[in-house]
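Hey all, sorry for the wall of text incoming. These are the two entities for the joint prediction.
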Amino acid sequence: MTQLELAREGTVSKEMRLVAQEEGVDEEFVRQGVAAGTIVIPANKNHQIGRFCGVGKGLRIKVNANIGTSPDYGDMETELEKLRVAVEFKADTVMDLSTGGDLGAIRRAILRESPIPLGTVPIYQAGIEAIERREAIVKMTADDLFSVIEEQAEEGVDFMTVHCGVTRSAIERLRRQGRVTDVVSRGGAFLLGWMVHNEQENPLYEQYDRLLEIARRFDVTLSLGDGLRPGSLADATDRAQVEELLILGELVERAWEAGVQVMVEGPGHLPLDQVAANVQLEKSLCKGAPFYVLGPLVTDIAAGYDHICGAIGGAIAAVAGADFLCYVTPSEHLGLPNPDEVKEGVIASRIAAHAADIVKGVKGAWEWDQKMSQARKSLDWEEQVRLCLDPDKARRLHYQHETSGTACSMCGDYCAMELVARFLGTAPEKC
Amino acid sequence: MTQLELAREGTVSKEMRLVAQEEGVDEEFVRQGVAAGTIVIPANKNHQIGRFCGVGKGLRIKVNANIGTSPDYGDMETELEKLRVAVEFKADTVMDLSTGGDLGAIRRAILRESPIPLGTVPIYQAGIEAIERREAIVKMTADDLFSVIEEQAEEGVDFMTVHCGVTRSAIERLRRQGRVTDVVSRGGAFLLGWMVHNEQENPLYEQYDRLLEIARRFDVTLSLGDGLRPGSLADATDRAQVEELLILGELVERAWEAGVQVMVEGPGHLPLDQVAANVQLEKSLCKGAPFYVLGPLVTDIAAGYDHICGAIGGAIAAVAGADFLCYVTPSEHLGLPNPDEVKEGVIASRIAAHAADIVKGVKGAWEWDQKMSQARKSLDWEEQVRLCLDPDKARRLHYQHETSGTACSMCGDYCAMELVARFLGTAPEKC
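and here's what came out:
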């Protein structure tokens, strides 16, 4: 049985119990959320997970880091290093988006090493194998695609992005819409090319029950991909995007009927004032299924610093109800990230997630800030460093300039904390 | 006459004309905003400014970079380098917050070199000179303080932070409030110490007319400082903060009566869902005077990455109506920034400002993103790099991994842009 089925019959599974412990919430709260579909616990029956992760309503906002090779860069060692970095800086999940090298070997190595849930986009492997074996993506068969999905599910992949909503009707809406950047989803582009060339419906849509059967067997959480997500502010919240979301909403209900855990993916590029509306739309059209957003990026012009741009959009989305933030790295729009950029991306998303956790009253979030502020007030630098997201960087920045007293080099002897403590007589021990 | 007085009598000054040109708005729009007090143009009569800057309603969101020495770090050369970096990455103004070395010499050098408006916090110099000459900040006299203000005004400082709202009544509210981090404003701490020790009212409040007379004479824009701003989320929007804002609102009106340009400073540390409320409160209590926010920081725990945290808060504040973002650097809470961190801070704030400009319909903002997206669609890398905030970094990230085709190393041959252009027949020339 899947987590969804267990929850429905009233069972609190080990996974639900561990998620509840980790979040500091009631087991019954988690069980009810999983049963209702507002919480998913990506946990393939064949994957040994060290740190389970619940995604959804009432839980801490989660962060995903994309890793994986491209045809131009990356190898197994580099990707395992990215995995290590992502885990160290507390990504909650990783996705292996490899498209270069031995895809199966890289994925299996990541699965073995990863203590956190792993996601994939099976159409990548299916498309690339079609190029290798049949000379073109468009020569891929539906069976090719489903056999890759089954292979990855059997190996233990915990969640899979499947672009089931890139249907012929959605592509037709896209054509009538007209866009600046058309389709920017790689998986969406693979499918669109296949469908247009073969004049056939998307096999992930047409044979959705087949997909559900595989997902149910291994308890793979489906992440319904937004192949038609906007790739520029100009294309945001347009008819093609919303058409696809309407379809995904229907597919969410079919997944629930089949006992399959499911979440929904969202943009992408959105003007800041459209972020909350996109979250509300998903929650409404998809009946509260967890929402997994990429960024969102609130401007198109921040390449080199898109992790910052994504943190702005991510924080706003999370406060509005998004549950799961896919990080964006400084390399976005420019190239494949290296391990340093993976780190930057994870930290930026974690700041966004935490800013939202505070507002949402997530257990422990406020207390963390309170502790930091108390350490700041008492000029306890070791405690401040310890409480940071990146203690090594905080230590380096603090100690890079010598100081004459107990304050930092920003103010030296003119530290407001010290002055005021003295004048108001509120001096903590260290002052 | 000040810009405010000129605008009121119906004159469009050279400064108003240049601001209007720069913004692509009507001269009369700028004049009316200056006359109404909703726009300020910091421009001391004695400062040769190369790039004028209008701050306020209907204009592009502006970004300030704080530079300046501390007793522990920085010297004239380093600060001039920070100025150069801030200007290169398009800060709209800089503030010299020096508290170490020869304060006058550093300020005058920055004034000479700076093509953009310069702000200061005169209480720093006054307090430090009191320590040097009279052995303690508390021995500073009101005349000492006003003579520093006059000296800096005469030299050409364009705007000055003056913590006029740290009154005895506000300190009393602070005592009754109780806080985690008491007072974190350095200028606020200097004044509070002086007031508590001497049992006297804040001279900047008590002799506000004297301040207005000096400001009017040189057309120094007053930036009414928030000495009691919250230094932690726990202290956000508390009674001490709001008491000070009530006082600042009254002082805004007195400045306008005296023909003096004025803006108001704001937090600081705020939970994300309090940011918009703080902007609305300022706009309401201060009758639409421009709002100049520090960050705001939406969590206390992001030291090392507070520029990202400040970008989140800044974007939300700007969309809500804040006009002017003071940057925060990665060194915030840890030490004085070096030039690299100044650059990081400016860019993060500019992303926040631009994300808001798009939403606010600022002229040219949307078009910039549109151009970038078109360059992206056509895989025109040189144009993409040119349109970035930091072309050198974008170029480095793009070219750090070799690519086999025209796409970037993220997707290589599987670039969605290329695939879709081919399949949909929308290929731009480069594809």
